Amino acid sequence: MQDRPPLPPFTAASAKRKTRLAEDGWNSRDPEQVALAYTEDTLWRNRSEFLSGRAQVKQFLRRKWSRELDYRLVKEVWAFRGDRIAVRYAYEWRDEDGQWFRSFGSENWEFDANGLMRRRFACINDLSIEDHDRKLRWPLGPRPDDHPGLTDLGL
């Protein structure tokens, strides 16, 4: 098994780096690549959906990004200890009718010794927004280094 650094136990710097790598991965919207960050037997709760294993994660992500169009995500470390990181995040997306949403949430992550995420528990709320209310505006893909984070955006 190949390591996926940074590895636990996390420091403030390594937790921040791990969080940014996760954000960049999700902003790629590539289910095959994103799923590689999780153990084969990963356990998830995402809203009211429960997933078990990397194959279900891939299916979930394919569904997600087929309906959450123009997806852009920002994550921020909330707390960390040992092999766990808690993050808060916001992402913006539009549906097929052009309605924009900002989804807010928090996640609790647990990693194995190789740096793969073993457990992910996500709570998410959606808010309908107008295009002029969007705050996450950059070309699709990873957030540019000079784009503000959640705290700077007041989110």
Automatic annotation (TrEMBL):
Region Disordered: start-end pairs: 1-23
Family annotation (InterPro entries): DUF1348, NTF2-like_dom_sf
Gene3D superfamilies from the UniProt entry: 3.10.450.50
Protein name: Nuclear transport factor 2 family protein
Organism from which the protein derives: Alsobacter sp. KACC 23698
Lineage: Bacteria, Pseudomonadati, Pseudomonadota, Alphaproteobacteria, Hyphomicrobiales
